[in-house]
Amino acid sequence: MDFQRYSYKDLVANIEELKKHYPFIHLEVIGHSVMGKNIVAIRLGVGAKELFYSGDWHANEYLTAPLLMTFVEDFAKAYANHNTLRGIDVQKIYQNTSIWIVPMVNPDGIELVQEGINPDHPFYETVLKINEGFQHFDGWSANINGVDLNHQWPADWEEEAAVSPQKPSPRKYGGERPLSEPETQAIYSFTKRHNFRMVLAFHSQGEVIYWGYKGFETKDSEHIVNQFSTITGYIPERVADSSAGYKDWFVQEYVRPGFTVEVGYGTNPLPFSQFKQIYSTNLELLLKAPLFI
User: Fold this and answer.
1) Can you tell me the distance from the alpha carbon of 67 to that of 169, in angstroms, rounded to the nearest whole number?
2) Beta bridge mates, 40
3) If DSSP codes are grouped into helix, strand and coil, which group holds residue 37?
4) Which one from 73, 115, 262, 284 is the annotated catalytic residue?
5) Where do the structural domains in the chain lie, given as residue ranges?
6) Separation of alpha carbons 85 and 238, rounded Å
7) Taking Cα atoms as reference points, which of 268, 269, 256, 260 lies closest to residue 242?
8) Active site includes 50?
9) What is the CATH number of domain 8-109+181-292?
10) Structure-derived torsion over alpha carbons of residues 198, 203, 206, 208, reported in degrees to the nearest 10
11) Which of 103, 119, 159, 281 lies 20 to 30 Å from 272 when distance is taken between CA atoms?
12) pLDDT tens-digit profile of 60-84?
């Protein structure tokens, strides 16, 4: 795995390699990005109780995909070898639960931030207009259309849209309407097809875990987030200063535990020098979340 960056091409190669070594890993293409890249879901486990981890919602937060993919590899290796992981019985988790993982929700945006853009790119003129002519994309968190995929959700979308950019932007533009983008449509349909008892959406940065939304959160959500805080050292915060996020919609729609986990600390994109610490901090969280459903 390339720890200087982790691209969509790296993800595809990583998934193919893992499937060769661990054929029990289940893969599904659940949709496509604006530019036609596969949005892939991975399932670990065969149990009836389902939960969902997602990452790389924002283009300049691309450390969250390798976080999730390293977890997939370590979990699969421990299961195949009948080993525990951090002292936790992986076999039991595999039999009792199904952990679904979409490591890269926003592959087009990730590619833009990592590789930049040239005149051959089909969105060259559009992207440069949105970015006011600048060829530097470290501040870009949107998809290739300039829509923020975590401001797209029908949880007070109108309220959030009123205080957000009113046109395509590198950050925080919620689109012309909720779920206008193929990436959010893919996650929406995927969520609707399953019976997730909990979701965790991984972002960076801040070392904070957001757990509530306008009183829709469950009674046990605070207990769970306090356990997660003990595991990671991250600060539990009931709400963020925004609406229309995936976690917000899930909590409101299903009245089940949902969490936004902000890994690492600094300015996005975080340097890969933080990766080992981020992974070490979050591995136990990823392993123990299934025990709370």
Assistant:
1) 27
2) 29
3) coil
4) 262
5) 8-109+181-292
6) 30
7) 260
8) no
9) 3.40.630.10
10) 0
11) 119
12) 999 999 999 999 999 999 999 999 9
